[in-house]
Amino acid sequence: MRIRPGRFAVLAVALLTASAALPATAANGQERQHSPSHPSSGGLSAVIRYTEYGIPHILAKNYPDLGFGTGWAQAADQVCTLADGFVTLRGERSRFFGPDAAPDGSLSSAAENLSSDLYFRGVRATGTVEKLLAEPAPRGPSRDSKDLMRGWAAGYNAWLAQNRITDPACRGASWVRPVTAVDVAARTFALAVLGGQGRAVDGITAARPPATTAARTAVGIPDAQSAARAARRLFDTADMGSNAVAFSGATTANGRGLLLGNPHYPWQGGRRFWQSQQTIPGELNVAGGALLGSTTVSIGHNARMAWSHTVATGVTLNLHQLTLDPADPTTYLVDGKPERMTRRTVTVESRGGPHVTRTQWWTRYGPVVTSLGAGLPLPWTSTTAYALNDPNAENLRAPDTALGFGRARGTADVLTTLRRTQGLPWINTIAADSGGHSLFTQSQVLPRITDELAQRCSTALGKALYPSSGIAVLDGSRGDCAPGSDPDAVQPGIFGPAHMPVLKDAPYSENSNDSAWLANTDRPLTGYERVFGPIGSPLSSRARGAKADVSAMAAKGELTVRDLQAQQFANRATSGDLIADDSARACAALPGGTATGSDGKAVDVSEACGVLKAWDHSMKTGSRGALLFDRFWRRLTAVTAPAQLWKVPFSAEDPVHTPNTLNTRAPGVATALADAVSELRAAGIALDATLGAHQVVVRGDRRIPVPGGTESLGVWNKVEPVWDAAAGGYTEVTTGSSYIQAVGWDGGRCPVARTLLTYSQSSNPNSPHFSDQTRLFSEGKWVTSRFCEKDILSSPGLRVIRVGEHR
């Protein structure tokens, strides 16, 4: 029996006001039992219903209470990871963990704690986040968003005050402390600038004006070709990626939409997803995965619409090359007039050593930066310096975008939300709805760098970087070279919604971190500026496989959620389809069945020929030969340029099927095969071993087999495992499939949804939800979403608690 809306409202009120009748059970065996009658004494409170796998369904009367329940439930599962992130945001890593240790990379690219602290303490000292919170909506966050932040902080703090930490990662640690709403907002800020200032933290905090004549005249900029390569690597999505596809009703069995979301995010640290449902009766009802510390669902679904995100190709920063006053390297010229840089002096407390005080230098364009990664130095000389422009440093709007998605009744509302909030910093959006609509859009906050502006204002370095990477280096000495403004943009210096690539109601809309160009191969998107991404360029192996798969699915038609589930765990290796058979034939043709390894020694590879020939071209845990091909392919692509690897080169006229045909005469082929065979034999691994015997994660005393494969193999179900031959193969995953959802509709009030959080809800090894969904992932199984009240209340493991502030 379905619960009618009126009955749902009555039920919700009953749960919120009379939960004394329900058992106050522990969500993860950590919460103390407390009196449920009036737990908050008039303060914030929420009801949390836990269903299978520790998934909380948070029920609240308003946004502050919803934030409270969300903060409480996140702390119960992830208190140590969250607390570590707040240490980062306060700029206190050097104090607690030492200046030379490395952060986990979840909130910036800082290589060491000291540079991370210098940056984030600078953000805090200048009140950057507070100023953004004070901006009126829509340029600043709405009242609902700020209420969620306030409530989240209160819920996190209440959990700390009322519970004992059992996670050994932070049990008894002095750095686990209460937080404020500004701390919560600061996490949103850090995520927003990940692709801009966050990518350049080391270069910002290391910037120093030249002190000597030699330093002032040093150049050290890499040549144009090297700079372009370094710039392209800077925006590589190896540590974060994703696949997502939306099918329109024209391809489905019942004329309604379908969505499969498969984001690839880190398996450890502060950029993990966490799964929940958030409900305010009559106002909001949404389920999905939230990035840790987020107050809203980041990727998810409601009763009528589902959405996912993929990391976009838009370049979220640009540089301004400054012309300096020869007499003062901290003064730059704009239209012939001198402007002094602003000093930002920051002091960081360091464990076991003196405080460290450094000065950062800021300009009208942003901070002075002396590098964008190790491969792209930007030296500060007596004549030249570089300033980084990051428009997302003025963007705290992502929570409002997520709230709008949660309230949306269809893909049209998704577009309306994106036009109104303009809050997504570095991601695309793919969505489908119960009305049969599909959507792809690259609606992100980008500096308004048009091709015309880049042509007119690029410096010599910019002319090398912009065409190949999309990074513009503009002449900072000219006021007319600053990014312009669009009338429909919510903040100056960014593109407005009218410029965004959008594809509506295509049979399928798919993205695998390629550009917007081929969201649908039959309806290519063109005409956008280079800063959004390339047009007519080669696709990654994963993107090629994804386009081939989803276009074939759309052509077949009659699709259901089961087809989405099958796609997720097909584990087809695109690169295997392209070259495995050729590799097996080349292997069989080797004289005497031997090949010479990179160490100059002859290796008997004859056994490998048959293994490669028999391999099923998949990265399933039971696949034999998958591990051999993986190790061979990694070695081959590491030493062989694409131009040498393929006989048939890339063609923009056939981007899914080119390049192809392995050049078996390339010198690296035989060498890579010999090295892979030697490597596996030295590790005691059979060449025909199953993948699951040697690609695992270790959780407690259990080795859990992991399906999927690395980026270059072109597997939809991407995982990036860590090779440890001494431990028997791959024994951990750094990045890969994370919060997965397959969503459709059948005409009823409840969506048909299957979900999976690959690394499970909790990072606490003492939690029952430390690896339960990881075991499901290993077996290719799913969680049936309990979205409607009847499904939540019928959960065989239902546990209900009411949480409050306890004043």
UniProtKB/TrEMBL annotation:
InterPro entries: Ntn_hydrolases_N, Penicillin_amidase_A-knob, Penicillin_amidase_dom1, Penicillin_amidase_N_B-knob, S45. Transmembrane segments: none annotated. Keywords: Hydrolase, Signal, Zymogen. Residues 1-26 form the signal peptide. It comes from the Bacteria. SUPFAM superfamilies: N-terminal nucleophile aminohydrolases (Ntn hydrolases). Belongs to the peptidase S45 family. This is Penicillin acylase family protein. It comes from Streptomyces mirabilis.
